[in-house]
Amino acid sequence: MVHTIQQNNAPLEFNAKPRKFAMWLFVVSSIIMFGGFTSYYLVFSAAKGKGHGLVLPDAFMYSTAVLVLSSVFLFLAARALRSKQLKQQQLFLWITVILGIAFAYLQFQAWTSLYMSGAVLINNNAAISMIYLLSGMHLLHIVAGLAFVVSALISSYRNVEHAKLVYRQDIASIFWHFIDILWIYLYVFLLLNS
Amino acid sequence: MSTISTHDTHHDDHGHHHETFLTKYVFSQDHKMIAKQFLITGIIMAVIAMILSILFRIQLAWPDQNFPLLEQLLGKWAEGGRIKPDFYLALVTIHGTIMVFFVLTAGLSGTFSNLLIPLQVGARDMASPFLNMLSYWFFFAACVIMMSSFFIQTGPASAGWTVYPPLSAVPKAIPGSGLGMTLWLISMILFVASSLMGGINYVSTILNMRTKGMDFWKMPLTIWAFFLTAVLGILSFPVLVAGVVLLIFDRSVGTSFYLSDMVFGTQIMPNEGGSPILWQHLFWFLGHPEVYIVIMPAMGLSSEIIAVNSRKPIFGYHAMVYSLIGITVLSLIVWGHHMFVTGMNPFLGGVFMITTLIIAVPSAVKTFNWLATLWKGNIRFTPGMLFAIGMVSFFISGGLTGIWLGNATLDINLHDTYFVVAHFHLVMGSAAIFGMLAGVYHWFPKMFGRLMDSKLAYLHFWVTFVCTYLVFFPLHFLGLDGVPRRYYAFTEFEFMHKWMTVNKLVTWSAIVAGLAQVAFLFNFFYSIFRGKRAPQNPWESNTLEWTTPVERIHGNWPGEIPTVHRWPYDYSKPGAESDFIPQTVPFSETMSSNLFHDFEGNAEAEQIQREWNAKNDPSKNNE
Amino acid sequence: MILPEAASEHGKKIDQMFEITLILTSIVFIATHIVLFIFTYIYRYNKARKAYYYPHNNMIERIWTIVPALVLTVLVLMGFLTWRSIFHKVEDPNNKPLSVEVTSSQFQWDIRYPGKDGIVGKKNYKLVTSTNNLGIDFSDRNSQDDLVADEIVLPVNKAVRFTLGSKDVIHSFYMPHFRIQLNTVPGMPTYFEFTPTITTDEMKAKTGDPNFHYVLLCSKICGTNHFNMQKVVRIVSEKEYEEWLTNQKPYLTDDLRKAFNLPVPVTEPAKAADTTATASVKPSIENQLALKK
Q1: Is the residue at B13 inside a domain?
Q2: Are residues B556 and B438 in the same domain?
Q3: Which pairs with CB-CB distance under 8 Å and at least 24 residues apart come from A120-125?
């Protein structure tokens, strides 16, 4: 079959809006997955009359602070991009990445101190196992979020067209701020339902 | 098909590359090609699942007989020519999993959402073609992993498609819960990822990429159905992920989310404190919306096909949409009706009974509206139409028994019996398969530019329709007599002996129905290459996809995307020249058939129409 | 009737609901199918004719939304009330139901009758050993007179309360003639109370089948022999029941008495039992101790 290709060169123009919308939908489905985990926790602790019953390690507090700070820098990066200061955007993105990695490190610290205190993953109290699971699943999201931030960073260095830069930055922002808020929710949830 | 070299003429710089065989047929990002990939993979999986079902039907019909052929085919799973009990359960489990997830979710929704959403809303492609491609390949990987479990020592998962722990969590309980179950869970995670990527794309495309004039109330019912299906998927599939992750931890790490108080023989298991009931909650929170994820696309396809072939507008378009929305919302709060007899709080059982029976109302509305669409129609019996009518019939037959099962009181005696098997095979199995086949026959010209043979299609329809009823209708009576499902043989209980002859009838019908599918498969693959060439609009339909060229070009429309002016159901409109008016025809070209109602309160347009009527047909102004 | 005759009090109520639902749905089933096939036949394609443009009629649509809604409301209310009457039993202290415990495991049912005290004693899965198959805790006085039974025998017209449990995976306790089904879940006891109304002998006469007997089935997929988890159920007169009960043996054997440090009627209690008694809560440890000695 030989196509009449000439009529076919109407370009599939780049349209950021539906893709950003898709990101929002992903955020929704992610919220629902964590909703599934936390409702397991609620039903479990209501049925057994107990939660994890632990004092959460301090590392979680520090990691929360680090994550909030990283969100602030990502916000600054987006603002720098809007005023077309790429150098500044790159700097702030780098800081975000480093803080993200620091967050991951602190989560490992928290797990270690939980482990040391005897609250291990394989536990007859599923609520304690759930602490590992929630923070672990969240950490997977952090990895994905870092990938988005790095993608924004790379396109910033490559100096692609502005619309795409803004799009990549927006995608990274939506997701990163989401996982920031998600972590705060999870942390507060675990604090309240001990 | 020849390779395409003329594509060099592309000069836009938006990531268009040289089209090779690999990018055109394998890692294609074109929604139409992805739809075909979903369809053909779905058909292959359906054939596999059907063969599995015939295998276990043979066991049920002739439990005392040896078939040396089976041993040759299945090796150690059928030593001495008789299927082993463990393998029987594996067959049941994998048959269910493949049919529910791979055929009726990915094969149905994946195929037609991909094909029709951009074409019917007027978009060049999906919101993210890359994500779309990924969605297919995740699905493909899920299929391969699921099938690979047939080739391992301990066999595939065999705890039923609902994989209730502890049976699914402890390899000691059944061999299939070893590696086979691990593969099942991995496959399911990939599948959910695929569904989510697909669903996110569908929703985003429908909300953001409709062509000019295509407002919500001008969308065909197919699009409404795909949209709500995708929304439902996004809302419920992540919960299955949560459930599956916990199950993986219980199985592979040793946590106790679902496990407690277990002793196998005299070996006391270390897990303590979990609750197996919680898996059922998480599973059915997806599981029940899942059955609507399966049936709603079939409803949408059937609505469209029935309207086109009755040459009549769908009756009660708004009611059809609202009932779909009603089903979507209600389906999220009925999951407990799968758990009436698990020993959960009886008060909760009562609540779930109420929500469950309410969901019958929108379903009833849909049925009556389909019947009303047929009334005073001018029905063309195209193959697609026959299957759509078959879908309505199965939906009624299976749906009505839902009123029995949704009633907690009756469910006490019917739960987990053959009555349930008959119910869901009719209402979501057969009805959805018929909706899917209707869609395949109807949109085949859009996919391949050729028509399928209608004589073979009629043969396919009648044999399948009759045999499906012969297979599933008798099963109701087994259930009423108290025969539980997933029984390997009816030999051990005396009261079941009387059902042995019925089992033979059912098995023979299943075999004949299976053979009828050969007619379909031959027709399908033969017509791809040798079928009659299709005209641009073979069914004289109004929707946008039939305004695209038969050649199926990348980007769908040469030049501008057409603008939409009217709803998709202007069939047999009084005063119009032909019995259909495509959505792209403006009202200014159809002055003789316009109704004031069409203008949705646009005073200027109404005034113009009034003046035209006064000149040409004054009686119309009195309406 | 399509269902076998109900042999329990609540079963009759279920059957009433069943009949109403059967009649209603049959009417709808037949009517809609007649309409479906007649319409497709009458309005088949004819070149000369044009279909009738009839996009909607709010009145008709309202009617066929409201009528099913009303019918379903009636069904829901009836179902809800029947459901409540089955699961919410008011305790009558003067007429306590007979307690029977059923434990499922792959692939058998174990029956435990309460003995003279009328109470089935405690058990703990951690106590399971090859001699103490159910993990009965004999330090609970109520357990000590509990009886083993290899069939379920119940007196007619007397309320019975089943306590259901499972040792390994989920099974389901299903007795179709009595309209009973309830899952047995490891770690979560479930309860079903009912009153049988027809004895096995009466049922034999009614069905005209001299081999008739009530069945107990497993209806939740549970493994290889799911299709063959049998237990004979007999409904007999009060007198026959008492007679049968006196022939049943207690669970507590001499070996178990020793293990639980209880007095053995004939011989003196063994000294060694002292040390194992406290450890008996953790049988794995108990075995190790035994080995060390």
Answers
A1: no
A2: no
A3: A121/B253, A121/B255, A122/B253, A122/B254, A122/B255, A123/B255, A123/B256, A124/B256, A124/B271, A124/B272, A124/B273, A125/A50, A125/A52, A125/A53, A125/B273
Q: What is the largest CA-CA distance in chain A?
A: 71
Contact B131 A22 (CB under 8 A): yes
Q: Domain for residue B6, yes or no?
A: no
Distance from CA of C244 to the nearest CA of B (A): 25
Q: Nearest Cα to B156, choosing from B133, B178, B132?
A: B178
* Total domain count, chain B: 2
B280 to chain A: closest CA residue: A40
Mutate to test the interface with B, among A21, A52, A139 (most CBs of B within 10 A): A21
Chains that touch C (3 or more CB pairs under 8 A): B
Per-residue pLDDT tens for B281-326? 999 998 899 999 999 999 999 999 999 999 999 999 999 999 999 9
pLDDT at C274 over 80: no
Tens digits of residue pLDDT in C75-103: 999 999 999 888 887 777 777 899 999 99
Q: CB-based contact (8 Å) between A193 and chain B?
A: no
For chain C, list the domains and their CATH numbers.
9-87 (1.10.287), 98-246 (2.60.40.420), 254-292 (no CATH)
Task: Name all chains with 3 or more CB-CB pairs below 8 Å to chain A.
Answer: B
Point out which residues pair with C188 in neighbouring strands: C185
Name which of C58, C127, B249 is nearest A40 in CA terms: B249
Q: Please indicate whether residue B373 or residue B265 has the higher confidence score (pLDDT).
A: B373
Per-domain boundaries in chain A: 21-192
DSSP C34-76: HHHHHHHHHTB--TT---------HHHHHHHHHHHHHHHHHHH
- The domain in which residue B550 lies consists of 544-622
Q: Do A3 and B278 touch (CB under 8 A)?
A: no
What per-residue confidence (pLDDT) applies to B623?
Answer: 57
How far apart (Å, rounded) are the C-alpha atoms in residues B259 and B261?
A: 7
Dihedral angle, C-alpha C161, C165, C171, C172, nearest 10 °? 10
* One domain for residues B106 and B171: yes
Which domain CATH number covers B93? Answer: 1.20.210.10
From the list B55, B147, B152, the residue with the least C-alpha distance to B101 is B147
Class of the A21-192 domain? mainly alpha
Contact status of B547 with chain C (Cβ, < 8 Å)? no
Residue B611 to residues B576, B607, B615, B621, C147, Cα–Cα distance (Å): 18, 6, 6, 9, 95
Which of B 266-325 lie inside 8 A of A, CB atoms? 271-275, 278, 281-282, 285
Of A2, A7, A25, the CB nearest to B2: A2
Residues B596 and B484 in one domain: no
What ipTM was reported for this prediction? 0.90
From the list B259, A175, B453, B417, the residue with the least C-alpha distance to C170 is B259
> Which of B533, B553, B587 is where one domain is finished?
B533
Is residue B197 in a domain?
yes
The pLDDT tens digits of the residues spanning B2-32 come to: 333 334 334 444 444 567 777 778 888 999 9
- The pLDDT of residue B122: 94
pLDDT tens, residue by residue, C27-55: 999 999 999 999 999 999 988 888 999 99
With contact defined as beta carbons under 8 Å apart, do C172 and C218 qualify? Answer: yes
Per-residue pLDDT of chain A (194 residues; tens, 9 = 90+): 333 333 343 445 677 888 899 999 999 999 999 999 999 999 999 888 888 888 899 999 999 999 999 999 999 999 999 998 889 999 999 999 999 999 999 999 999 999 998 888 888 888 999 999 999 999 999 999 999 999 999 999 987 888 889 999 999 999 999 999 999 999 999 999 87
How large is the average pLDDT for residues C58-74? Answer: 93
B517/B603 same-domain check: no
